[in-house]
Amino acid sequence: MAALLPRGVVAYEMKGLCSADSLFDAERDCLAKASAPRLQEFAAGRACARAALSALGWSAGPILVGADRSPVWPPGFAGSISHTMGYCLAVAAKRSDAGAAIRSLGVDAETMGSVTSDLWSHLMRDEEVNHLLRLGEAEQAVHASLIFSAKEAFYKAQYPLTHGWVNFEDVAVELGDSTFVATLRNTDLPIAKQALTFEGKFRIDYPYVVTAMAI
Questions:
Q1: Which partner for 153 in 38, 106, 114, 135 could form a disulfide, CB atoms 3.0-4.6 Å apart?
Q2: Which domain holds residue 9?
Q3: What is the pTM for the complete model shown?
Q4: Do 207 and 190 fall into the same domain?
């Protein structure tokens, strides 16, 4: 996973369930009304994030949830968490000494086939739908998941810098062999002041796709 991101980024992955007993009380309080499966999912994300942060020298502690529902990373660190059915990952980096002056990270994992054709018009731009229509059924399942995941990774990477929302139609994703480019189609977005195109990488590990971006 770390190979998808620049030097200085630490990544941890987990497959299967994680006990909610691993949560700090303050973390559990953030999801006081959550179901048992949601708590286990949340616990897996926090366990991976703590492992990544600890590898960077941070003393383990709670990783709380902000008012916007995003993780509250320790001062001086950037990070991102994602989970899908039976799989979780988290990445973290020190902002001060990450190799490429990293300010923010975004990762996303999706289960192949979850982005079905009835969702395309809601999640994709016309040019992305046209790309999918030119593919066979098996490739459609992979590429649809990758395009959606890439948009999620971009959103997560830009949000800590702008605290601004990005709609699915605001960005167009073009896939390469193991890379993707997210191009802004809405230049009024706050992140457009920094760049109009952003590059990321992806990995296919059946039944999952994983996308990652550093800004």
A1: 106
A2: 2-102
A3: 0.94
A4: yes
